[in-house]
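User: My advisor, Dr. K., asked me to get a structural model of this assembly before our group meeting. I'm new to this, so sorry if the format is off. These are the inputs:
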Amino acid sequence: ILNVEQSPQSLHVQEGDSTNFTCSFPSSNFYALHWYRWETAKSPEALFVMTLNGDEKKKGRISATLNTKEGYSYLYIKGSQPEDSATYLCAPDQTGANNLFFGTGTRLTVIP
Amino acid sequence: GAVVSQHPSWVICKSGTSVKIECRSLDFQATTMFWYRQFPKQSLMLMATSNEGSKATYEQGVEKDKFLINHASLTLSTLTVTSAHPEDSSFYICSARRQGLNTEAFFGQGTRLTVV
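Assistant: The format is fine. Below is the predicted structure of the whole assembly, which you can bring to the meeting.
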């Protein structure tokens, strides 16, 4: 079992606010870091798969950065909208391991 | 994106009976499939990883005789909860990955199992 921590556990923001949250993972044997969004009554969907230290990926108002040396990734949402309300999960891929452990998740609620 | 279909979406069964949950990749070949369980107000707990044609790798604390996983083809994996008990009631969800580097996982819709 891999120790993957996400913070905060939950977050309430006003519509239009920008927000960010963290995924911490073991930096040893790092291969890739996945971010997923899980909306209520839907299946989790992949946002990003990141591999390179210092990498930054963007999809619309959502972006993510990666630090493989210290073992963390940030997910940013700019100008949050109610449709961004979801649980955001991260999962690191490790070299030589064929499994995918998810973090505890950050539950985001955007208040209109 | 690729589609993974999980069936049934919900099931109620009597204590002592077995329940089979199917996970199918509809438009791609899934060399690896993952089975997760979600406890109330918790995240996804990885139960096991299955690769087509080989035995599943179970995570610590997951009884392999209780949760039988079969990945007989590149598009189908099944999870059978044997001799189900009320404590097995939970949300089970599968995901599937193609072969290759840095591939994302595609999730099924999940199955809500209630054992009465």
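One thing worth pointing out at the meeting: The first strand of chain A starts at residue 5 and ends at 7.

User: Perfect, thanks a lot.
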